Amino acid sequence: MGRIIRIPLRVRYVELGSGMHDKRVSYLTVQKQGIELAFESSHIDPVTDMINFKLTNAKIRYDDILVTAQDALSACEILTRHQGWNTGSGEHRYRAVSIDVRRPIVALPHCPHMWSNKEDELTCGEPDESGVGESGMCFLAGFAPPDFCPVSEPYERACERVLSMARHRRVRTSTIAFQGLRLRVIEA
């Protein structure tokens, strides 16, 4: 049984088109830098459109990913299997998807109630045909937690510690080394 590890991500991306009702994602390297390319599935040839594209049009998105692993280091190792992690010239700063070193990793306790439905949304309990879990949707997906949720209180405490760090207050964290990076970890 693994813990739930929240890893902060930095994603370099480009969106071709607007609206994006039926979005597809591909990863490619442009001028040594990895790019997440989002386009509508009806788009004929997004790679050809990228030939005339200027890298300065790329945007940066900050996101999080939840990984189930024994510890933060194992979760980072799992992340290296992500296609975006391996797109770019190899250096951390050139990858399409990389760990945001400015924000800490948060290690949460295991939740035996967490499931995923067909749309890859987190549920609390096994999902039914409509995609809703036995006790609703998961707290980590932004829904109200049930009384028995083992993750909500530790997560809220960890968020308070992250906010304290943002205010330049001293917060006790551990540090792990991963591929030449020093990453801070908050144990919730």
Question: What is the fold's blueprint, element by element?
Answer:
Elements: E1 3-16, E2 23-30, E3 33-40, H1 46-51, E4 59-69, H2 72-79, E5 97-99, E6 105-108, E7 114-116, E8 122-124, H3 152-166, E9 174-178, E10 181-187
Parallel strand pairs: 1-3, 6-10
Antiparallel strand pairs: 1-4, 1-5, 1-6, 2-3, 7-8, 9-10
Which key terms come to mind for this protein?
single chain, 188 residues, alpha+beta, two-stranded antiparallel sheet, 3 helices, globular
What does this structure look like?
By secondary structure, the protein is of the alpha+beta class. It has one domain (3-110, 150-187). Helix content is 15%, strand content 35%. The chain has helices at residues 46-51, 72-79, 152-166; strands spanning 3-16, 23-30, 33-40, 59-69, 97-99, 105-108, 114-116, 122-124, 174-178, 181-187. The strands form two sheets. Strands 1, 2, 3, 4, 5, 6, 9 and 10 form an eight-stranded mixed sheet that branches. Strands 7-8 form a two-stranded antiparallel ribbon.
- Please tally the helical runs, counting DSSP H or I stretches of 4 or more residues: 3
**Which of globular, elongated, flat, extended, rod-shaped describes the shape?**
globular
Number of strands: 10
Q: What is the first-to-last residue Cα distance?
A: 16 Å
Radius of gyration, in Å, reads 18 Å
- How many domains in all? 1
Q: Which sheet architecture does the biggest sheet show?
A: 8 strands, mixed
Strand content: 35-45%
Helical percent range? 10-25%
Helix and strand pattern: EEEHEHEEEEHEE
| Estimated structural class | alpha+beta
- Poorly predicted regions are none
Average per-residue pLDDT, rounded, comes to: 85
